[in-house]
Amino acid sequence: MPRSIWTGAISFGLVTVPVKLYSAVQRKTVRFHQLNSKTGVRIQQKRVDPSTGDEVAYEDIVKGYELSPDRYVVVEPGELEALDPKKTRTIDIEDFVALDEIDPIFYDHPYYLAPGPGGAKPYRLLLEAMRDTERVAIAKVVIRSKEQLVAIRPMGDVLAMATMVFADEVVDATRLDEVPDPDEIKTTKREIDIAKQLVDSLAAAFEPEKYSDTYRDEVLDLVERKAQGEEIAVQPTVEEDSTPAPDLMSALKASLDAVRARDGGGDADGGAPAKKPAARKKAPAKKTPAKKPAAKKAPARKKAATSKSKS
Q: Which residues are bridge partners to 56 per DSSP?
């Protein structure tokens, strides 16, 4: 069962809602350690002063901010502690905004908020008010000595909270040199029409269960097979096709023809109507979204291999 990582209260106006914070995701990555190839022993990393070659004790390490190469301003721990944001147990709502006004680039890490002791009714009141008004709460909270900007929104019968990056942390896309000037790139109406038909032909409802981390699955399978003593034959690298790419219009038409052939439709020049985009499924107003189907149980020996990869 998930364990709460923070307890506090949501504050808006004069209303206080006791809540508990839970992480909404569990990252799944394959972790490796560095070993000595000759002995198979895990390597230890030490803090070494390159000017003397001596190992530096932890108590002798200080923080330094680099001004220029080899020039630092030393900052003492007490000086930083004096600047730490005031530790509170309150999520202070500052604004309620429309969900579609928030660009996804601002979202960082998702969490769930569950009602704390005595908070069931105000929690429900806030959730239903936000759902009915279709608003998202923008708030600030201090977690682990760091002030966080967060967005709180209803997800079924639960409040979800996502930490956000601040505006000055988002890289301005206009600073990218590789982005061409839109005035220099001309597209024809025919090209746009074919591209729109291709998009419509591939439109579907979002089903997150359809997608998986195939690379992680293949790495775990490789680890399992090696753990069982299987010899792994490394396949030769396949050279990339050097055939010149077709022109854009030909590529668009070929892509659309392939999709229509798969779906039993006509070709791009045949005038057959493109498949209509799948209608978005609208969740019932007061029901929790359906749970994801349980993942298939892996063989016992695979679990063992997985645990080894994380140790």
A: none
